[in-house]
Design brief:
2 copies of one chain form a homodimer. Chain A is α/β, with parallel strands linked by helices and about 375 residues long. Chain A is built from 13 helices and 11 strands. Chain A has helices at about 20-35, 50-55, 60-70, 85-100, 120-125, 140-155, 165-175, 190, 255-270, 285-295, 305-310, 325-330, 340-350; strands spanning about 5-10, 45-50, 75-80, 105-110, 195-200, 200, 210-220, 235-240, 280, 365-370, 375-385. A 9-stranded mixed sheet of chain A has the order 3-2-4-7-1-8-11-10-9, sandwiched between helices. In chain A, strands 5-6 form a two-stranded antiparallel sheet. In chain A, helix 1 (about 20-35) packs across helix 3 and helix 4 (about 85-100) crosses helix 13. The two termini of chain A are about 15 Å apart. Chains A and B meet through helix 3, strand 3, helix 4, strand 8 and helix 9 of A and helix 3, strand 3, helix 4, helix 5 and strand 8 of B. Strand 3 of chain A pairs antiparallel with strand 3 of chain B.
Chain lengths: ~375, ~375
């Protein structure tokens, strides 16, 4: 398997982008990534998306977007694994280039969620859970996370206020990210008084939906496509693992076994340990998912992730910087596109292009994208080391 | 890129499978393929599906199916490119194994369409067309094919009855395929008196929707996973190309440029010409698509495919046997699964397991899966030559 590198990135702002169609959003990110790579087109396009079939009455996104960006004729394919569709598209592109079959691949992901009424969006999101054994019994995604959080607090003795810093840190970091949805800081007091959505989850535990797209250009590491203008970031590890789709079918609903498995595979591939990771773009769809991801990946002991947040060991200059550009919580969570935003942000950090949020001397950055309630988890480690 | 081979196949009957859930259908095909390969599980699962998000309220199919077949934890991903999702899943598996990252991959595809009312299914299928510039103006998939056929008949001077043998041949071949939806022959007279759906398309020009699943097990050609019990069929070529999603945006709506491009790539990879292909599982969703596919792949001159049918050069023992197990027309068209049925049937032929429909001395078999109105086309050539 040949090694691959990323030589271009692009993203739109996450927002209620009512003035942009699905193809315009995807196109804006892809064309920005190609321009950043000093290329005009690519051999193949891998597109992550979760819910355009329902929210936009549009499938077959591959041809739809490829033609729009002027690459009519090129190979293109959509991949979907619910909320981890973005990282799945990136991994598909990595494998295609690694195989030797494709020389220049674009991995992109797009989601346009805000055209639909909220109740419909909740139903579309619920297609990531088990239709027969979860959704038909009335459980939404927010409810599944609330049930897990309730049990976690009971089991490990945490109070709701102990999760505040996950959200405070994310909002703080988003202020300096022009692509983020929110640009306002929040306080402990605001977190504590946030309206309840589904006990114990409040509004400020949850990430917002949004419209947006992100993209990356992937080429072989030993490649004639590099010019002196391009900054290349190496894909040191790419891995994926699955779990049950239904939470109730797990031996331990408080442990993300697919996160543990894919992180372990990634550490082995990259030849690193959690101590070597300089920043971690985790999947903070809810504060409870932030906690479970930190624990499964070895950054905190089981049941102890809130301690990391309470001690502020998740800020830019601390033990393990997370959500460095705002995370799902404050950059926004355009569900099938989120995984590619995470990867683009890791690359910004490793290139030294993260501005006021720059993690000093970052060498290894990790991104973990969680599909469903932890049923499909994809982990990447990137590096600027040669 | 290492070469890969198929060592196991499985399929369900295409039918109105009301007694089977989506995961049961997928599971039946996957477990049959694994059993056929004398394996109990795989490292990764690539699942093709078009419309489960709408028709079954279920996305995140990867984890959903992987857990069901007893492979909890394994990597799994869904790929979608409308009607060519089945072949796209196969190609994703081929590239993953070719890259060296995955050793045993299952490519599977499933569709469960008959639980939904017909009008809804028509709307779900229409998501493969351009939502803004085709569907919003009232065009369904049947209508798009009717418009193309109308123009084709005008341009090349064919009458509707000249297309009959595409359907007669498919129905004839399906009689001996226990997995086919239809087991009744049709005649020229029946074709000519078939009810009009959308001028000039009649019911017997069109393939039926259905529920079904198919699967294949893919391993490296040089592999410790072979035993003497396994029959291996080599993937000689795998290629994909795209076109505009909207038919009106094409320079020539009567030419499948993505079919031509992906077929040419496949011939080059396999080192063959159309004359070397012993059977062709084409995408006969409508008789007009059968014609356009034959022409774009070099089996007929432009505008002359109906002549091949009229002269019966498409039967089992003729110039280019097509739809050898019934094709989309009579095996049935479970839309996102069709591409994998085509590949499984090619493998049955190359193994000499096609029973009464066996193409004598078949060495190279080709399958072409068409997404949308020709917007995304994937071609595979397989061989039993070593």
């Amino acid at each position: 398997m040949r090694k691959v590198a990323v030589i271009g990135i692009g993203q739109t702002r996450v927002a209620e982008n009512w003035d942009k169609s699905l193809r315009e959003l995807a196109g804006d990110a892809i064309l920005a990534a190609l321009q950043d790579a000093h290329l005009s087109t690519a051999d193949a396009f891998y597109l992550g998306n979760m819910m355009s079939s329902s929210a936009n009455n549009q499938q077959n996104l591959d041809a739809y977007v490829t033609d729009w960006v002027g690459a009519r004729g090129a190979e293109s394919i959509r991949v979907e694994s619910a909320c981890s569709s973005g990282a799945a598209a990136f991994r598909a592109a990595v494998l295609a280039v690694a195989s030797g079959e494709i020389n220049i691949a674009v991995a992109a992901a797009v989601e346009k969620m805000t055209d639909s009424p909220g109740a419909e969006t909740t139903a579309y999101l619920a297609t990531a859970a088990d239709a027969d054994w979860e959704v038909d019994h009335g459980v939404s995604f927010v409810a599944l996370n609330a049930l897990i959080m309730q049990r976690y607090m009971h089991e490990y003795g945490w109070a709701h206020q102990d999760f505040a810093n996950f959200s405070i840190n994310a909002h703080q970091n988003a202020i300096n990210n022009p692509y983020a949805m929110f640009h306002m800081p929040i306080s402990q007091d605001k977190f504590d008084r946030s309206p309840l959505i589904c006990d114990p989850l409040t509004l400020l535990d949850a990430s917002p939906i949004g419209d947006g797209a992100a993209a990356a250009v992937i080429v072989p590491l030993e490649s004639q496509f590099f010019t002196s203008l391009q900054k290349r970031i190496i894909v040191a590890a790419s891995s994926a693992a699955s779990d049950t789709i239904a939470v109730h079918a797990r031996k331990d609903p408080l442990w993300l076994s697919a996160a543990e498995k894919s992180a372990k595979l990634a550490y082995d591939q990259a030849g690193v340990t959690p101590q070597d990771i300089d920043l971690f773009e985790y999947h903070d769809a809810f504060t409870i998912m932030a906690s479970l991801s930190l624990e499964a990946c070895g950054f905190a002991e089981r049941g102890q992730a809130p301690k990391l947040a309470l001690e502020n060991e998740i800020a830019i200059e601390s033990r393990i910087p997370v959500a460095t550009m705002g995370g799902l919580k404050a950059r926004g969570h355009p569900v099938g596109a989120t995984g590619l935003f995470q990867l683009v942000e890791v690359i910004q950090q490793l290139r030294g292009q993260a501005g006021a949020n720059q993690v000093p001397n970052a060498v290894f950055g990790m991104a973990q994208n969680i599909g469903g309630s932890g049923s499909n988890i994809i982990t990447h480690i990137l590096t600027n080391a040669s």
